[in-house]
Amino acid sequence: MKTQLVEMIRKDVGNFPGMPGAASKLLALLNNPETPITEIEAILRYEPGLTANVLRLVNSAYFGFSKKIGSVRQAILLMGWKRLAQLVVASCVSAIMDKPVAGYDLAPGDLWRHAVAVAVSAEGLAKLLKIGGVEEIFTAGLLHDVGKMVLGRFVAEHRVDMEVESYRDRSFEQIEKEIFGMDHAEVGALILANWGLPEDLVFAVQYHHEPEKTPKTLPSVDIVHVADIVTLMIGIGVGREGLQYEISREVAERLKLEAHHIERIASETLQWVHSFTESMQAE
Amino acid sequence: MKIGGNGDTLVTHALGSCLGLMVYDPVARVGGLLHAMLPLSKINPQKALENPYMFVDTGVPELFRQLYEIGGQKSRMVIKAAGCGQPLGNSEMFKIGERNYTVLKKLLWKNNLLLEAEDVGGVISRTVYFDLSNGQVMVSARGEKREL
Question: When you count CB atoms within 10 A of the terminal residue's CB, does the N or C end of chain A come out lower?
Fold first, then answer.
């Protein structure tokens, strides 16, 4: 039965919407730090709607520029094109991730708010802990739970088996693995791999509940793990499974994490989410 | 934080490790619902100035103060708590829910107040419905609703 389920899940992953053309072209350029601005401008020139959405994000209170940024060129000069590429991804996935998610009982907009909250709190935590070189962390935070969109219907169908007494103290992704042969983190990683996203980003998504199993120790894996749990604790996009996820002691030690770091980030996250998403509301 | 009078129903969603505090005066028929995220305001004094309800130590006194203003009396207050959950793994630093609950209990004890009922702890995320016509509190989690 498990093999059958894995097959069905893989099939659904294959049918999951692709990353729109402009975003995947930009992401393909991510590995080349010397990408000329004109090349990026050329990609976005044919996507006026997307460009407008991206510029709205650039001008959001989250980035706090004092002057209005009116062009892609200006945005790249001010924030760097990798940052711009992150905002292109955010614009592209917001429509997909805004939908309700069965199984986890997430209402429309819940998954997206959770995604943004993990992205901004992960960035905030990296800054607070003075951990650099984690450029992919924003996108990793944004996409860490995308697998729930595929796995949700399976969770809904197997609810009775998943909510039994003997599973009560098990971390939810372990229950998913036991029942489906795969958890939502791995499903997410498959989607990201299909989208052609870089390996480090895929790892941060795949191991966000089991950071000690990552084949490559990356601060972004550890930080997304912590940011996810903190965001659930403060109730942003928390689903039916609630806080049924386990904190990794190894990660807490590796990051030299203390209670005041967690509380500080928790106290700021709602405001950060608001400052980012406010600009995305339809005008 | 929300306060109201007879006929209102106050709701707060997704209390993970946050504290939900329901306070009701059955004679004046006024009540308030606090959704506090963190135990102590000293972690972010600036935030506490902007939004005292984010913290248990500043939010609880403010809730009572506002209820007194609309006719509530301390001796009649019925106090109930929900939320204060935590993730698995028994990590001290992630026990924000437990710390929220401890600070609440200390505050109540200092002011000679007692909790009438509570539904706290565990890994579940709760939603609270607080009916101010009769003070009834319903807690829903995992698709089940029960009276507190």
Answer: C
When mean pLDDT is compared across A82-96, A166-180, B17-31, B89-103, the lowest value belongs to: A82-96
For residues B27 and A250, what is the distance between their CA atoms, to the nearest angstrom?
53
Residue type, B30: V
What does the alpha-carbon distance between residue A168 and residue A141 come to, in Å, rounded to a whole number?
A: 27
Amino acid at B71: G
B/e letters for B70-99, b = 16+ CB within 10 Å, e = fewer, are eebeeeebbbbbbbbbbbbeebebbbbbbb
Nearest CA in chain B to A236: B14
With an 8 Å Cβ cutoff, are A163 and B141 in contact?
A: no
Output the average pLDDT for chain A.
Answer: 92
Choose the closest CB to A267 out of B43, B89, B141.
Answer: B43
**Residue B18 annotated to the active site:** yes
pLDDT at A135 over 90: no
Contact, A171 vs A213, CB < 8 A?
Answer: no
Could you give the C-alpha distances from A105 to A12, A206, A245, B10, B83, in angstroms and in order? 19, 22, 16, 22, 19
Cβ separation of B38 and A267 shorter than 8 Å? yes
Q: Confidence band (pLDDT; 50, 70, 90) for A87? A: very high
Secondary structure letter of residue A247 according to DSSP: P
Give CA–CA dist A203/A179, Å, rounded.
Answer: 22
Mean pLDDT of A42-65: 90
Write out pLDDT tens, residues A231-281.
Answer: 999 999 999 999 999 999 999 999 999 999 999 999 999 999 999 998 876
Beta-carbon separation of B94 and A247 below 8 A: yes
Burial B110-138 (b: 16+ CB within 10 A, else e): eeebebbebbbebbbbbbbbbbbeebebb
With a CB cutoff of 8 Å and minimum separation 6, the contacts of A179 are A2, A5, A158, A161, A162
Judged by a CB distance cut-off of 8 A, whether residue B91 touches chain A is: yes
- Full-model pTM: 0.94
Task: Please report, for chain B, how many H helices and E strands are present, in that order.
Answer: 3, 9
